[in-house]
Records
---
Amino acid sequence: MARGWESKSVEEQQSAREERAVHPRLTPEEMERKSKRESLSLDRTRLQRELQQACNARHRGMLEQALAHIEAEIEKLG
């Protein structure tokens, strides 16, 4: 027998409640810090990939400095 829309709605509400319990709400400051950390992590990955492909010594040096700066920023965030 097919389930009615009411039982699906109840199931969705229960699922949403369980999901909220697993993922507590973050404060605006925590959300900003998390977003910045994720962005810095993506930048670090990009720089590491570019560093592996760089041939020019000056370009490699620039990438290494940028990578060091990104890693320092990540350390500040904790």
---
Amino acid sequence: MKLQVQTVHFDADSKLLDFVQAKFNKLDQFYDRITSADVYLMLDKGESSKVQNKIVEIKVYVPGDSIFVRETGTTFEEATDRVLDIAKTQVKKYKEKVKAKNAPKAAELITEEEDSDLL
């Protein structure tokens, strides 16, 4: 999976980028057909200028579709963990949906068994 990490209006240190890279590379374990993913790290411009929430967004590209997750947290690490948990769930659901769509129907299986019994 090709992973691209982008920071919006700030410069991230290599430690944060390595953390994000290591976390999101785990998505391949749940669905091997993920082609790429874009991760966006942003600072939330809230009412209080002293405390800024961190926003992490990920867009995961799978054949014919994409999965998008956006979460906030007090740190990028916290927001990344939240996004990863939700993305894992969505990727698993997508995988099951594709598997169910491509699975043979029960009626087709019965007719195939009847055809083989006749031979």
---
Amino acid sequence: MSTETAPDTQATNRLGEIEMLSPRRSGGPTPQAFRGVPIEVVVAVGRARPMIADLARLRRDSVLSLDTALTDPVDLYVGDRLIARGELQEMEDGSGRLGVRLTEIADLEDAV
């Protein structure tokens, strides 16, 4: 005799799990429910607009000229939404990594 659960009981259990995980009927999950979720922030340093022929000639150690100076502010994006601006700086931990010191921050209250 098998100790497995009958197929329709398994389906009922899964349905119960789905109901438990469904958003609240009173407007969905609260913003606090997402605060622990990691999100990718893209730092846009500058743009380049080379001709396709120039792009095809790029090799290792080639330098692609950007439209910005080293001291120009950088933009921080989540998806296509601009969330902040800042200045590049070397991290003080001696790792040689870059960080961004924020100088402007968008109002994100409506986005969360």
